[in-house]
Amino acid sequence: MPGVEVTVEGLSKSFGRANIWSDVTLSLPPGEVSVLLGPSGTGKSVFLKSLIGLLKPEKGSIVIHDTDLVRCNESKLYELRKLFGVLFQDGALFGSMNLYDNIAFPLREHTKKSESQIRDIVMEKMDMVGLKGDEMKLPGEISGGMRKRAGLARALVLDPEIILFDEPDSGLDPVRTAYLNQLILDLNAQTDSTFLIVTHDINTAQTVPDNIGMLYRKHLAMFGPREVLLTSDDPVVSQFLNGRRQGPIGMSEEKDTAQAAREMAEVDELDGLPPIKPQLTATGGLPERKAVARRQKRVRDMLHTLPPAAQEAIRRSFEENSAPQARAQAVGAAPYSRPDDPTRALPRISPDDDPTTQLPRVR
């Protein structure tokens, strides 16, 4: 069974007189990877905190398993939070605890499992993210990328049905970001949980998610399957996803009307839509991601409602990605895992690999 659906309806949040966003409505499809984008300061992290009940919106609803998190009592909210795993921007590890104890913390806090059971779970999750052998290290003794992976392992120990990622790529170089993106998709293939990622990385937004949403000027500009947004003619969505200067978004989010009009005229001179980048696939040996077929069916059902240029680009993308060579090209390198069971997950990293980064050396 896929992860649970999260239905957000008419959500509004303010701090005093400062409105963060209003009337946000979307549904996170069960078992799929969704990305939330937007210029800095548009309230993306606030949205994540609202989803798990750390912040209380003034209006709207967040429904999971027929329960509204905005209006339920504290005991019910406490139980529903166990459905979530959260990877915070900096990992949010306890500095005085080693990695093993950091990752074991949710199990000791929320379950009655024995220490031997906890050890089995912790070691499995550390192995999944490539941290086996680093159990006794303190957060201050490891790199930022390793801290993020430790935070991800901790988010996984309760086998959550919904996993939230708050800018997992912040502070990482492009290579580590690529490895982390592959790891996220591989985890989705293994768990079929519902993922929501907040990111600024355009390559991540173009190649990782099944669905893309964008916050802009205190509203949700658009949310839907990746193919629909990557071919959208909405000026805000198109500008952001293509990383262009030309468009309505300026340095301070809002841009002078005359300047925006001049830049949009430049955009209009460009010919056609850019090609849709292929989506990453799970590493060879892992289950095929069930989310892909579910998303593609939704896209085909709504294809006739899209502009002709978008329809053509999406059809071409489906045809290219269905070819065996395209699928092989889209498969990224196995990121971190070194399983003892070769039938379970990812290829083992050889002893010649650099133990300080857990990444294979270039030969």
UniProtKB/TrEMBL annotation:
Family annotation (PROSITE patterns): ABC_TRANSPORTER_1, ABC_TRANSPORTER_2
Q: Which residues form the ABC transporter domain?
A: 6-242
Q: Tell me a Gene Ontology molecular-function term this record carries.
A: ATP binding
Query: Can you tell which superkingdom this protein's organism belongs to?
Result: Bacteria
UniProt keyword annotations, A-Z: ATP-binding, Nucleotide-binding, Transport
Spans of biased composition, class Low complexity?
323-335
Q: Which residue stretches belong to region Disordered?
A: 306-363
Gene3D superfamilies hit by this protein: P-loop containing nucleotide triphosphate hydrolases
Keyword ATP-binding listed? The answer is yes
Give the protein's recorded name. Answer: ATP-binding cassette domain-containing protein
Originating species: Pseudonocardia yuanmonensis
Tell me the lineage of the source organism: Bacteria, Bacillati, Actinomycetota, Actinomycetes, Pseudonocardiales
